[in-house]
Amino acid sequence: METGDASPVPSGVDGLDYVLRGGYAKFRAHLIEGRPGSGKTTVGLQFLVAGAEAGEKCLYITLSESKRELLSVAQRHGMKLDGIEILELVPPELSLDPSQLQTLVHSSDLELGETVQTALAEIGRLKPNRVVFDSLSEIRLLSQGSLRYRRQVLALKSFFLLNDVTVLLLDDLTAEHDDLNLHSISHGVIRMEQLAPVYGSERRRLRVIKMRGVEIRGGYHDFVIRPGGISVFPRLVAGEHDEGEHGEPALSRTAVDTLLGGGLSRGTGTLLMGPSGVGKSTIATTFCHAALMRGETVLVLLFDETKRIFLARAAGLGLDLQSFVESGLLLLEKVEPAELSPGELSSRIQAAVDEASARLVVIDSLTGYLNAMAEEQHLVLQMHEILTYLNQKGIVTILLLANHGLLGPMAAPVDMTYLCDSVMLLRFFEAGGRLRRAMSVVKKRVGPHEDTIREFKITPDGLVVGEPLKQFQGILTGVPSFQGKQADLLEDQSV
Predict the structure, then answer these.
(1) Is the pTM of this model over 0.85?
(2) What is the mean pLDDT of residues 468-494?
(3) Helix (H, G, I), strand (E, B) or coil at 149
């Protein structure tokens, strides 16, 4: 790691160093701004804890929170503040000591000078490597004027630079208008935001507005505050990841492979479309089981059902997946969309691919994902980035999308067909007084595929796929009608 002037200094926050291309700039002042509750204090504490663990001298200067409150926050996060000095500054005007109150002299003249001088004296005595100044809003109030405020912050910045200190200046944006003056004098600026959706838990995100001399990873990056501190989930950029190995096509070991022209090609995404209950999850499960039998790691993201139901449904098909869960080959992730941000979802997928070497990823389903995160912007673009990343890594991706409605004409809640390399259409149809199922492949970019329609059944022994049926009409309209002979259909079997 570089050790010179403005070289990267680890932030102590998971994921943030990746966004900053290494960390904060050494011996520079960085502005961390955000409304109250956005996580600024936690970022500051993690920065100092990382420094203390590296043997550096650290100082937390607080004008807004007491030392007692800071220690309580650190304790709840399991942080040890050993080796970190805490300077608690209380301006005379805010003190309850009568001897400290000023009446003849304008209070701001004395308060600001005393407050800043106390902080500078402590820095001169300790000679710390890292400093967190919490918060600039108190300096703004004591300055009682934007010009004096800017001059004071500029003087602080110069003092820090002369003393070779890496500093975080926290600002809670309590002014009527965001003061952009600080942006121009700060080496780096990070904006932290907290959003409140109509339903579900709050969403938090940050954006690096500037970092001089660094090609930062721009845009918004989701983050969460949990016991232990803040974790940042960098926005997924598929182009930054190397390509993986592809290999032989993935097979389901059923006649679905024939319909697909020999299975699913590695590095492609397949969309299974159809009404609820038609068998999308069942087909995906057969591919999962076949991959597990080959010794491959499989990731299944469950939006619409629990792990118990998924395993019970697979067992009803004669597929025992519990042993693969216990061995770690099958990674079942129950997603709570109201509690999960899009950035954390993509980070989970990356971890499964990069750390667990997953070769098959199933998202069940896109409908639950899109409905649960309806207020999030650009979800289709995010899914495009996820699919591109998985395709580059040579992963087989299966996406499930339920149509609106159960019978009759149907429509998809969102058009995802252009993102996927293969599209399989599943439909109910009626023949001989029974409700039956049909499948067809309407698109495949890599290699040939059958253009036929096949009936399939879900049985206790697994998936049974029949021969191509020629006497069909209306399959693409959503109201398929079978005009052939009863003998051409699969024999009745108990389900």
Answers:
(1) no
(2) 64
(3) helix
Query: Alpha carbon 463 to chain centroid distance?
Result: 35
Q: Terminus-to-terminus CA distance in the chain, angstroms? A: 62
- What does each C-alpha distance from 279 to 273, 276, 368, 400 come to in angstroms? 10, 8, 16, 10
Express each pLDDT in 395-443 by its tens digit.
999 999 887 655 555 555 567 788 899 999 998 887 777 788 889 999 9
CA atoms within 13 Å, Cβ hemisphere of 126: 23
Spatial distance between the Cα atoms of 358 and 297, rounded to a whole number of angstroms: 4
CATH of 240-488, one of 3.40.50.300, 3.20.20.30, 3.40.50.2300, 2.60.40.10: 3.40.50.300
Instruction: Name the residue type at position 140.
Output: R
- Same-fold call for 8-235 versus 240-488: yes
Confidence at residue 145, expressed as pLDDT on a 0 to 100 scale: 75
By 3-state DSSP, what share of the chain in percent is helix, strand and coil, each rounded to 5?
A: 35, 25, 40
Domain 8-235 annotated CATH 2.60.40.10: no
Q: Do 229 and 73 form a contact (C-beta atoms < 8 A)?
A: no
Q: Supply the pLDDT for residue 475.
A: 57
Alpha-carbon gap, residue 451 to 470, rounded angstroms: 11
Decide: 29 and 190 in contact? Cβ < 8 Å.
Answer: no
Average pLDDT, the chain: 84
pLDDT tens readout for residues 383-399: 889 999 999 999 999 99
**pLDDT above 90 for 322:** yes
Measure the CA–CA gap between 22 and 187, rounded to whole angstroms: 15
Q: Domain-by-domain residue ranges, the chain?
A: 8-235, 240-488
Cα gap 348→369, rounded to integer Å: 15
Contact (CB, 8 A) for 138 and 171:
no
Q: Which residue in 175, 398, 149 sits closest to 273, CA to CA?
A: 398
- pLDDT score for 95: 47
Torsion of CA 306, 310, 313, 317, to 10 degrees: 180
